[in-house]
Specification:
Blueprint (H helix, E strand, L loop, with lengths): L2 H13 L1 H53 L1 H6 L4 H18 L8 E8 L2 E11 L10 E11 L2
Antiparallel strand pairs: 1-2, 2-3
Helix pairs in contact: 2-4
Keywords: Membrane, Transmembrane, Transmembrane helix
Length: 150
């Protein structure tokens, strides 16, 4: 088929309404598929954020409850940041051994105690769905939690 014949064939295909509808359908299918994949990735990242926030809340509560349950801490009356960090690290080790998250392990960024409050900051590199095989993309997620002892 010569170049001129290919051009004529393409013009006939484009001039035909069935050809236009086929091209329009193919383009719209790609756009809709991209929108669905984008929505799914954003939803997954949001679910990972909610999961990490729950783990952070539990870690902060673990630090506060270790103070309330241990007579040594109660006698002193003060919980230090180092002791709270040890309690949070123990909780995260136990949590990750029972329920390992997908992607990198959860990291304990910061633990500090101010008065009767324990502040915990966690970070996690969460994978993006549908992209892990093509591009190993990890989204950094951070969660900050506070627990107060009574």
């Amino acid at each position: 088929m010569s170049k001129f014949q290919r051009v004529l064939h393409a013009q006939k295909f484009i001039a035909n309404e069935d050809g236009r509808i086929s091209l329009l359908f193919a383009v719209l299918l790609v756009i809709v598929a991209g929108a669905v994949l984008t929505f799914s990735a954003i939803s997954s990242v949001q679910l990972h954020k909610i999961y990490l926030q729950g783990v952070g809340d539990q870690a902060a509560y673990a630090a506060v409850s270790s103070f309330a349950n241990d007579s040594y801490y109660r006698q002193r009356g003060v919980l230090t940041s180092e002791e709270a960090q040890v309690a949070c690290e123990r909780f995260l080790t136990l949590h990750q051994s029972k329920q390992a998250p997908i992607g990198d392990p959860i990291k304990l960024e910061e633990v500090r105690v101010e008065g009767n409050k324990v502040f915990v900051s966690l970070s996690w590199l969460a994978p993006v769905p549908f992209m892990s095989k093509l591009l190993p993309v990890l989204i950094p997620i951070r969660a900050d939690s506070v627990a107060r002892r009574r």
